[in-house]
Fold this protein.
Amino acid sequence: MLELLVFALVILVPFPIGFALAHYRPQSKNLKNAAWAALPACLPFFGFGLWIVLTQDLSCEDPPCQNMAPMWAMAMGVLGVLTAVTGYGVGLLGDAWARNRARKRGE
């Protein structure tokens, strides 16, 4: 179920944000719009990873370590990077679609 939620977050959130930024602010750069559109998708993962790093003990005293906090912190970092890259691309698609739609409407 979590995978479906992450998929929906990455696909359904950046596209309308990129579209709206390009539609209401046509003078802005498309790469900046895509970066703004990717933020809501990746910030929860980076925030949760930072919360794990700041609040949990990441040390391991014995060699067979039973502490899962370092693994979860790394997993949240990887998920944050993946959602940032994917959200950036999807936001760029929304931006391009809005600009193409405006150009066709102007003709």
About this structure: The radius of gyration is 18 Å.
